[in-house]
Amino acid sequence: MLVRFQSFSAITQAGLALAAIFLQVPARADGAAAAAETKPGSDPATTAQAAAPPPEPFAYTLGLGALRYPRWLGAKSQRTIPIPYVDLNWQDRVELSTTDGLRVDLLHGQHWHGGLVGTLTWGRSRHDLGSAASQLPTFDTTAQAGVYLEYAPMEPLSLGLRWRRDLQATGVVYGDLYAEWDLPRLGYVEHSLKGGVEGMNGRGMRRFFGLDAASAAALGQSPYAPGRGASQYTLEYQAFVPTSAHTGVALDFSWGKLSSSARQSPVIQSYGAPVQRSIMAAFVLHY
């Protein structure tokens, strides 16, 4: 999993849905009373629709959790860090979250969504590299900006793609293709499954998986310069478990397998692992 503010990858849509439910005015369950309030000659469906409360203009989810993930993309070793959990949503048009970064839906259609996206990708520090710090190059965490397009052919399924570029002068470009399926509820638990493929241009692949001549000589390996292509294939399970009307636990389990060109890197063969796993859990408050 490419650890980032998009894909620590979308947990709390369930929390937002619950928040909307809890904040709505309770519906009248007494059918006779509702009928008595309907004016003679009026359309009951139209009257009910007019009486329905408007959607909440703003919803937010805040919390604190922990994330365990690979120290760098392709790393064998992992680390655990505390993280703040944030999800701010304005009418499903603008969303800022720990898991998905920034999304601005400019289309906002029934089946089509798309617009602007902003994310964050972790770098690789000397501390992260450990014993390999003297042989391998380090690089900073970067922020990305780009666009996305998403199509929902049916209610539980969404298909999408994203294109992003580093805002710093790295020249790295990222691309994602993904499919997300909202699974049937398990009682009050809302959950989903997401699969995708992530790719980079040549500069990105060489930044994360390449080995220049100096580093190769220090490791006793041959230089390696992969071209553009897929970097990893991912599968992610996300769940929201409510604990009360306004609290719950957000969970994210991610599994990824590096692509063949990434696995062939001497960096991965010497210090990394072809399979990447991460887990996040957070206790949240939502309204």
TrEMBL record:
UniProt keyword list: Signal
Residues spanning the signal sequence: 1-29
Chain positions covered by the region annotation Disordered: 34-54
Pfam families xref list: MipA
The name this protein goes by in its record: Outer membrane scaffolding protein for murein synthesis (MipA/OmpV family)
Organism: Extensimonas vulgaris
